[in-house]
Every structure is written in C-alpha cells, then in structure tokens.
Design brief:
- The protein has 558 residues and is of the alpha+beta class.
- Helices cover 35% and strands 22% of the residues.
- The chain has helices at residues 74-81, 91-101, 125-137, 143-161, 164-176, 198-208, 224-236, 284-296, 302-309, 341-357, 362-374, 383-395, 402-411, 415-425, 459-464, 473-478, 497-500, 520-527, and strands spanning 15-21, 28-36, 42-47, 53-60, 104-109, 114-121, 177-178, 214-220, 251-252, 257-262, 267-275, 317-322, 329-337, 432-437, 466-470, 487-492, 508-512, 515-516, 535-542, 545-552.
- It has a seven-stranded mixed sheet with strand order 1-2-3-8-4-6-5, with helices on both faces. Strands 15, 16, 17, 18, 19 and 20 form a six-stranded antiparallel sheet that branches.
- Strand 17 and strand 18 form a beta hairpin.
C-alpha cells in the first residue's frame, strides 16, 4: 500500500465542495466533496459527525443488463462471489473479522449496476478498509463455494416461484421487455444459473470491476483530510482498464395483452402496465407528480381511494414508474379476492384513462407537490441512504446541486404538464395485464388448452385451433401475399386459443417463439418438442405489417 505522504495524484483531481440546503426543511445536508482520481474513480464524500460510524458504498457500472445471453444472473453471482474468499483469507475468516469489528460488509447486483458496502466504527476504519479493499481486489471465486452459491440461488428462484407476487412480477417483466437486457430477473433463471461457470464470473469481474467504471461514496464521522490521507491512497492504486459496455436495445410488448396464471390461492395478484421512462427523461418530474396523484401517493392516491376506500376491494394498490438508466416500465400492482379481480382491474384501467382525459384538481396538485418536496429529507436521513443517494446523483448525472434544484423542479409542474405526461406515458388501451389467481373463482378460466397430444399428426388443428399450409403460388394469389416466406393460416377454429388471440385465415406465420419457420414440417417439429400446457409467441404478418401475438391456455382477453 502507498504511504500517506505520496499525494502527487491530488494535483490532477477535480475537487468540488457544495453545501446543500433545503428550503423550508430543518434537515441540514452535509457539504459534498467530489474528487476524481487519476485512474478515473469518482469519489464523493459527505462529512457528518453525529454518529461514530463511517459508511462506504462502491457502485460498479455492471449489473444484470450486462449479463450475456444464456448467462442471466452472472452479475448477481459475481457480486455474491466477492464475499466467498480471497487469495489471503477464506470467507469464514472474513466473516469472523467483520463480526469482531461489529461492522457489516455486503455486495449485490441490480439491473443497471452492482454495489459493495461497508459500515464500520470510526475507530476501526483502517481495519474495515483492509477487509473491503481485499474483497474488492483479491477475490478468487472458489469453485466449491461458487457451486454452493449456485445451488442457493436456484433454491431462491424455486422459492420465488411459489410466491404469487413474484410470479406475477417475473411474468410481467418477461412479457413487457421483448428482447431487452431488462427482460430477465437479476438473479437469473433456473435454466441460466447452471450454465454459469467460475471462469465466466472471473471474466465478468475483470471486465467491469475497474476504477474507471466505478463511483465511491462515503459519509459519516470522517473529515476531508482523513479521506485524503486514509481513504484515497487505497483506491488510487487500483489499475484502470478498458471497459466495453454492451449495446442496449429494447423492444416493448404491444397490447392489450393478458396473461392468466392459475394458482390455488385466495387472493388474485394483478399487475397492469406499459412501457415507462428513463431516469434522464425531461418529463421525469411531471411524471412523478402525476403518478403520486394516480397511485403513488398512498392514501392520497386515486387508485387507493376508488379501489380500497370506496369499495373495499383491496388492502393495498399502488402505481410506479421503474425509471432506470434506460426506459423501464409503468406498473399498477394490487391484490384482491379472486371474485373481485375483474372489477378491480376495470377500476384501475378507468383511473388510468380518467387522469389522461381531465386535469387534476388544484388540491391534488398542491398536495402532491407538498408531499414530494417535504418528504425529500427522508431519502437521506441515514448514512446508508445518503451514500446511496450520492451514488445515484452521480450515476444519473443529476449534478451535485440536485438537492437544491429538486424543490423547484417539482414546484414548476403544472396541471397541464400532468395531463400531457398522462396522455403520453399511460396507455389504458395498450397494456400488459398479468393475473395470478384461482382462475375459476375469478371467472377467468378458459377451456382452451395449448397442449401436445401424443400420437397426433396435425398438432395445429387439435391444439392451436388453426390449419396451416406452405405458401404456394395459389395461396399467394388467394390471400394477396407479397412473398413466399413463412407459412399461411388457412382456417381458424372458433373459440380456439388462436381465435381468441385474433389469428385470422390469410395470416402468415414467420416465427414461432422467435424461431423462423419456412414450412409446415418445420412448424410441427418445433411444437413436437413441447410438453404439457404452455404459451406460444408467433410473429404474424397481415397485409404487409408484422406483429407478435402470444396465445395459449392462459393467454386470452378478459
């Protein structure tokens, strides 16, 4: 480690000291100091001597959206793997040392980035930093420990599959984000986790865990001089490296699209949503006010008033925009009795539509602004919250004067702004709806089953409810087809899954579950691999326009 006297590198840093004050609020936010080291690590420091603790959090710009295809969960396992042992100490020894100090250390992954955290008493800061930097710079990802971690992760995924709320959320994300880095769970899937190797974890670590790809925030009982002499030298020694971020391309589902999943439960778990916005969207603050009025304001929101207070249909209902580095989703999430699922869904869609058609009241607008501005200090009232906040401000490029700007950004929103963004970002006629419920009790059951019947040759007629043929010159002329690509639907059985999904005679099927099909035999060979009940996604071309259609036993409109 470098000695504290070698600080030539500080000549090349950028240093900013900004005091934060929130008008009308009693909480005094500590001044924030920003330093950029020669290896391009950004360091943010807020001094607060109210408690004898120091909290550090390191943001690594490599999260689940950086997972390679087929290895979903790689960022998650890499973050967990950091704490499984180093070249100097085992995981047990690291845990013992942390416990002895009364400190805490952790690592985790999110959709956009991963984080490492340390909370330690001021008097033990050097010992705590020794452990933190060792874990960060010398992980070995032991083969046996990784294998155990993979089994643990698979058990967690299985447990989530038994929770209706988790099932609904996973299905919504998978359905909403078509071909998107955001379209898979952060902790991976039961198919992807077994494919992740120690070598792939080590490669992910070496690719993204670079100082020039990180932000470090710390707050607590430590002065600027102590940061300069005791913290920065440890991180200045980290070698920078070239980081190649994968391209982000995303396609969103087009609705209305309903997915119904049958479970023997008493409460229906429901998610309604559509494409959302990114954190950097200029409309973010108007959307924040609009969503507060719609469903983000708790007892002050319209959704809670209409669905819970007036009708007693749900204990909780909320709406939110999941605004990430790139556009996320908008969701309304609620639970209700199976028998009242249809009514609750209808009311939620009505409120989405109403806020798009009529301006909110002056009382609603002022109430939203007062709460959003007044509650802001609660977002940074602990060391952990403050360090996380600093990281987000830097990561989303909000500017260190963001706390001073925030009240005016919220107060500048007008009723016209709310109406405009509601029309732009809420789509009550183009939504994805997920229902996890006892479908019979909810009145949503369907007799149509998408199922492969053993011994059947005509899978399409007996299972999907369609007849198909190769595109011949005669059919090309009959249905006015532009070319001979794909296979053509020649008949659709009434009330079949295909009929309910809107498939019509003359439609051309180009893909099945994202696999191109060019003949009837190819189509049947794909279906022949299926077992039991499932859903199917077709790319269908009609009158020169192509769109995805999802059909199956639990995929019908209400």
């Amino acid at each position: 480690m470098r000695t504290s006297g070698r600080f030539i590198f500080l000549l090349f840093t950028l240093l900013f000291v900004l005091p934060w004050h929130l008008e009308g609020n009693a909480l005094a936010i500590p001044a924030v100091q920003k330093t950029v080291l020669p290896n391009q690590l950004v360091v943010l420091h807020a001094e607060d001597h109210s408690l004898p603790f120091v909290t550090l959090e390191l943001l690594i710009n490599g999260g689940a959206r950086s997972d390679p295809a087929g290895q979903e969960g790689l960022a998650f396992l890499t973050a967990r793997g950091l704490l499984l042992g180093t070249s100097l100490h085992s995981a047990d020894r690291i845990n013992e040392d942390i416990d002895y100090l009364g400190a805490s250390i952790g690592s985790s992954a999110g959709r956009d980035y991963s984080t490492m955290t340390l909370r330690v008493l001021k008097k033990d800061i050097d010992k705590g930093l020794d452990i933190f930097t060792e874990v960060l710079t010398k992980p070995v990802f032991p083969e046996e420990e990784i294998a155990r971690e993979k089994k643990k992760t698979l058990a967690e995924i299985q447990s989530e599959d038994d929770q209706p709320g988790d099932v609904a959320e996973k299905e919504f994300i998978k359905t909403m984000f078509r071909s998107s880095p955001y379209g898979h769970p952060v902790n991976g899937t039961k198919e992807s986790i077994p494919k992740i190797t120690r070598e792939s974890i080590d490669h992910f670590y070496k690719t993204y865990y670079r100082p020039n790809n990180c932000i470090l925030a710390l707050s607590g009982d430590i002065s600027a001089e102590e940061v300069r002499t005791r913290i920065l030298p440890r991180f200045d020694a980290l070698p920078a490296g070239e980081v190649h971020q994968p391209d982000f391309t995303s396609a969103f589902a087009k609705g209305p699209l309903t997915i119904k999943i049958n479970r023997e439960i008493t409460q229906a778990n429901i998610i309604i949503g559509n494409q959302g916005i990114s954190r950097g969207n200029p409309d973010f603050y108007a959307v924040t006010v609009m969503n507060y009025v719609l469903g983000g304001g708790g007892f002050a929101s319209r959704l809670l008033e209409e669905i819970r207070n007036k009708r007693g249909l749900a204990y909780s209902v909320e709406s939110f925009f999941d605004a990430e580095k790139y556009p996320g989703s908008f969701q309304i999430v609620l639970q209700t009795k199976n028998a009242t699922a249809r009514e609750a869904i209808s009311l939620a869609l009505q409120q989405m539509d109403l806020i798009r058609k009529e301006p909110i009241s002056d009382k609603e607008l002022e109430g939203a602004k007062k709460y959003l501005v007044g509650s802001f200090p609660m977002r940074i009232d602990t060391q952990a919250k403050l360090t996380d906040f600093l990281l987000r401000v830097q990561y989303y490029d909000l500017g260190l004067d963001f706390p001073e700007k925030y009240p005016s950004l919220i107060r500048a929103v007008t009723k016209e702004d709310v109406l405009r963004v509601a029309k732009k970002y809420l789509h009550p006629e183009d939504y994805v709806l997920i229902v996890v419920a006892d479908l019979k009790e909810a009145g949503m059951n369907t007799e149509s089953q998408l199922k492969r019947t053993s011994g059947q040759n005509d899978f399409t007629q007996h299972d999907l409810g369609i007849s198909i043929d190769n595109v011949s010159p005669g059919l090309q002329s009959k249905y006015h087809l532009e070319d001979s690509k794909g296979i053509v639907v020649t008949a659709v059985r009434t009330d079949s899954p295909a009929d309910v999904a809107g498939i019509k005679a003359g439609d051309v099927i180009l893909q099945i579950d994202r696999k191109p099909v060019s003949s009837v035999q190819e189509f049947k060979s794909i279906i022949g691999l299926w077992e039991d009940t499932r859903t199917i996604e077709l790319l269908v071309k009609r009158q020169g326009k192509s769109s995805y259609v999802v059909i199956g036993s639990y995929l019908n409109t209400l």
